[in-house]
Amino acid sequence: MMHLFINSLAASAGGGLTYVRNVIPQMAMHPDLQVTAALSPALRKEFPSFPNVDLLELDMPATRRFWYEQTKLPDLIRRTRADVLLSAGNFALRNTPVPQILLSRNSIYTSGDFYRDLRLRHEYKAWFDTHLRAGLAKRSIRWADVTIAPSEAFAAELTRWAGKPVRAIYHGFDREAFTRDLTPLDAELEQKLRVAEESIKLLFVSHYNYYRNFETLIRALPPLRDRLGRPVKLLLTCKLVAGESPGAYNPERAANLIEKLGVSDMVIELGAIPHEQLHQLYRRANLYVTPAYTETFAHPLVESMASALPVVASDLPVHREICGDAALYFARFSCQELVDRVCELATVPEMATRLSASGVERSTAFSWKRHVDTLLAVARTLVGSRR
């Protein structure tokens, strides 16, 4: 029996949470596997008891996490007598007592657009901090025995950046689990959605951050309104208010842009929606739109395709890899191309129908079971290779 230790202390939002929520239940289905997972108390509460999974609650502030991981976690791993370490948060242990697999899934460290964006916003401290973390992320790839990325495009980018081969294993999707919860949306959300019932509804699932490029999407709203001649609503799963999203990203610029362009009536800020209820929101929208200028996998793209929602995505290698011919693409900072693609889908029903069908088929290429099986096969090749 292999014993796998998972360091998921960094799983606090977005893709990190999605990953841990899906991977641990899949690993629990392997009777020849023992798992010990270090995670936050809030995340621990989400899991039932599994006979072969020990969940260790570690209440660790983000400011102390890296220090704790590097100095204290190795001893904890030794005490559990684990065979392999899975570091799930972009940073590896420098002195791990067992072979280590690193999951690298943060593309801002390699994104020239992100550093340029921070300079334009005059956020020089964030620019410096990101460079510092990027240096640690690059060293982490060199410290790890194997580094895994969630897409071929991002794996190739990391390989060029770090000078060490990085392997791609797609993240997964479980349609049955995703659509299982039928709890109705709360009354406040329903009221907001009713306002949009007679409109063309564009959905963007993301908490606010800079690399998701909200401003390009907001700038596209006035010409969309003019060209379509119908009400258009943009549904956001965040609120553009300071302190309402994870991280230190300041939404003031996006909020001011909405006011400046006079599109407040076109933007519906739904706020964070429980992941288990998101499938209801996808079904209520007409199109899914993402203007992100950097990405590693983009779970909402798979979720929207599985929900038969036509996709308009920024033209990134990762987006083309994940969606293939199930999406229309636009240059990531071009409002005009974004408007053109949305208008195509909104005015040509046959095209929207074709993309919906292609998306449903494409979504079947992603499986959490397949991800975990491949990951564990890699882990087994490492057992006993280093102490």
CATH superfamily annotation of the largest domain: Glycogen Phosphorylase B
Q: Which term fits the overall shape?
A: globular
Fraction in helix: 40-55%
For the biggest sheet, the summary is: 7 strands, parallel
- Provide the low-confidence segments as ranges: none
Task: Write down the CATH topology of the largest domain.
Answer: Rossmann fold
Query: How are the strands of the biggest sheet laid out side by side?
Result: 3-2-1-4-5-6-7
Q: Let me know the number of strands.
A: 13
DSSP helix count? Answer: 18
Oligomer: single chain
Structural class: alpha/beta
Reconstruct the topology from this structure:
Layout: E1 2-7, H1 14-27, E2 33-39, H2 41-44, E3 53-57, H3 62-71, H4 73-80, E4 84-87, E5 100-103, H5 112-120, H6 124-143, E6 146-149, H7 152-162, E7 167-168, H8 175-178, H9 187-195, E8 200-204, H10 214-219, H11 221-228, E9 232-236, H12 252-261, E10 267-269, H13 278-284, E11 287-290, H14 299-306, E12 311-314, H15 317-323, E13 327-330, H16 335-347, H17 349-363, H18 368-382
Parallel strand pairs: 1-2, 1-4, 2-3, 4-5, 5-6, 6-7, 8-9, 8-11, 9-10, 11-12, 12-13
Helix pairs in contact: 1-18, 11-16, 14-17, 16-17
Describe the overall structure.
By secondary structure, the protein is of the alpha/beta class. It has two domains: 2-172 and 367-382, Glycogen Phosphorylase B (Rossmann fold); 175-363, Glycogen Phosphorylase B (Rossmann fold, 3-Layer(aba) Sandwich). Helices cover 46% and strands 15% of the residues. The protein has 18 helices and 13 strands. It has helices spanning 14-27, 41-44, 62-71, 73-80, 112-120, 124-143, 152-162, 175-178, 187-195, 214-219, 221-228, 252-261, 278-284, 299-306, 317-323, 335-347, 349-363, 368-382; strands spanning 2-7, 33-39, 53-57, 84-87, 100-103, 146-149, 167-168, 200-204, 232-236, 267-269, 287-290, 311-314, 327-330. The chain has a seven-stranded parallel sheet with strand order 3-2-1-4-5-6-7, with helices on both faces. A six-stranded parallel sheet has the order 10-9-8-11-12-13, with helices on both faces. Helix 2 links the parallel strand 2 (33-39) and strand 3 (53-57). Helix 1 (14-27) packs across helix 18 and helix 14 (299-306) crosses helix 17 (349-363). The chain is globular and about 65 Å long. The chain starts with a strand and ends in a 5-residue tail after the last helix. The model has no long low-confidence stretch (mean pLDDT 93).
